[in-house]
Write a structure and sequence with these properties.
Layout lengths: L3 E10 L2 E11 L4 E5 L6 H9 L6 E6 L2 E2 L10 E4 L11 H11 L4 H14 L15 H13 L5 E5 L7 H18 L2 E6 L2 H7 L2 E6 L2 E6 L1 H6 L4 H6 L6 E10 L4 E5 L3 E5 L11 E6 L12 E12 L3 E8 L6 E6 L9 E6 L5 E3 L18
Parallel strand pairs: 3-8, 3-9, 6-7, 7-8
Antiparallel strand pairs: 1-2, 1-4, 4-5, 9-10, 11-12, 11-14, 12-13, 14-19, 15-16, 15-18, 16-17
Helix pairs in contact: 2-3, 2-4, 3-4
Bound molecules: adenosine-5'-diphosphate and magnesium ion (MG).
């Protein structure tokens, strides 16, 4: 087991910078998820940790050893890829044993490790099967097993579930979480799927165009996003954004003017704000309330209703607000297209972002997030 530390890690491909000053501390035994949209540099970061890609600048430590120049096999990390590429002519046991055989590990030791990994991954009864006779989930488990038998200090997963269908993804997500608990190993998991990040991570690293936007526990990112990018990326449907302007600001609160001349005073720290700075108010679709519980009300018209059974999404046009607002409500809510609706907003559940995307820190203490 091991800790992993990145210090000011930068990466350029032929002069084009794709990773900038990345600082991450991963503790021994932690499950850390790197999340962000396609192209933000997740795989590149993981490949640098694995030693498959040079580090242009900065330092990488595994435990307290600087490993920038160590070849991949000496780093004791194991990587599981999205395309699991098993050898088709080898059965499950042979696929899992192959790397150890190449490393000239003794046969009894290979057998011991393959048996143990197969047991952990519930592959015991499939050891004789060829990959073509396995389901997608089983193949992915063999790919994990192939990494497990090498007993790496750190497991690296690069979008390992992206090729699986939705229900299998949910199942494998739970299996990987259980595996992490059982092995108590350090794991770094890359995904573009915010649900995987929220459900699996001890700690999320949100990446925005090659830089770290925020590091924190899942609910910390949900309730206290540090930037508008993180606010928009974590949570589905996405947070609603409404343009406004600051009327007054202090370290204790900020009063914002919204379209239609409505004012709302928010419990956020506005010390960094300039007078009359254009700002963006953020409200999650699940945080609208009825008019009698709200500080302000936006009156709109329902444009589209999407019924998902367990919940209903209503897309609402409000005069003066350019983007359609999304309301998440009960599956049994009888809202209808064309209907007028009052969207109540509570100041304490609002987010406020500066022109440069930085959040004004929320001062309201969410009961389920401990600091
Ligand atoms: N070998 C390479 N040569 C040039 N550019 C690359 C190479 N690998 C990745 N990139 C670029 O680096 C950026 C980050 O890529 P990547 O780490 O694969 O993103 P992600 O895994 O988050 O989708 C992308 O713009 C990609 O085009
Ligand atoms: Mg990738």
């Amino acid at each position: 087991m091991a800790s992993v530390t990145l210090r000011n890690v930068c990466k350029s491909f032929s002069g084009v910078e794709v990773t900038r000053n990345v600082n991450i501390d991963i503790e021994d035994g932690e499950f850390v998820v790197f999340v962000g949209p396609s192209g933000c540099g997740k795989s590149t970061l993981l490949r640098m940790i694995a030693g498959l890609e040079d580090i242009t600048d900065g330092e990488l430590y595994i435990d307290n050893d600087k490993v920038n120049d160590k070849p991949p096999m000496d780093r004791e990390v194991g990587m599981v890829f999205q395309s699991y590429a098993l050898y088709p002519h080898m059965n499950v046991a042979e696929n899992m044993a192959f790397g150890l055989k190449l490393a000239k590990t003794h046969k009894p030791e290979i057998d011991r490790r393959v048996t143990a990994a197969a047991h952990t991954l519930q592959l015991d009864r499939l050891l004789e099967r060829k990959p073509k006779d396995l389901s997608g989930g089983q193949r992915q488990r063999v790919a994990i097993g192939r990494t497990m038998v090498r007993e790496p200090k750190v497991f690296l997963f690069d979008e390992p579930l992206s090729n699986l269908d939705a229900s299998l993804r949910v199942q494998m997500r739970i299996e990987i979480s259980k595996l992490h608990k059982r092995l108590a190993a350090t794991m770094i998991y890359v995904t573009h799927d915010q649900v995987e990040a929220m459900t699996m991570a001890d700690k999320i690293v949100a990446l925005d165009q090659g830089t770290v936007a925020q590091i924190g526990r899942p609910l910390e990112l949900y309730h206290y996003p540090a930037t508008r990018f993180v606010a928009g990326f974590i949570g589905s449907p996405q947070m609603n954004f409404i343009n406004g302007r600051t009327q007054s600001a202090s370290s204790q609160n900020v009063t914002v003017t919204l379209p239609g001349g409505i004012h709302i005073t928010l419990p956020v720290n506005g010390s960094a704000l300039k007078p009359e700075e254009p700002v963006t108010l953020g409200v999650r679709p699940e945080h609208f309330v009825s008019a009698d519980e709200a500080e302000i009300v936006l009156n709109g018209t329902i444009n589209v209703v999407e019924r998902l059974g367990y919940q209903t999404l209503a897309h609402i046009d409000v005069e003066g607000i350019a983007s359609t607002l999304t309301l998440r409500t009960d599956g049994s809510n009888p809202v209808q297209e064309g209907q007028a609706i009052a969207l109540g907003i509570q100041a304490r559940s609002c987010h406020l972002f500066r022109e440069n995307g930085e959040a004004c820190p929320r001062l309201y203490h969410e009961p389920c997030v401990d600091f």
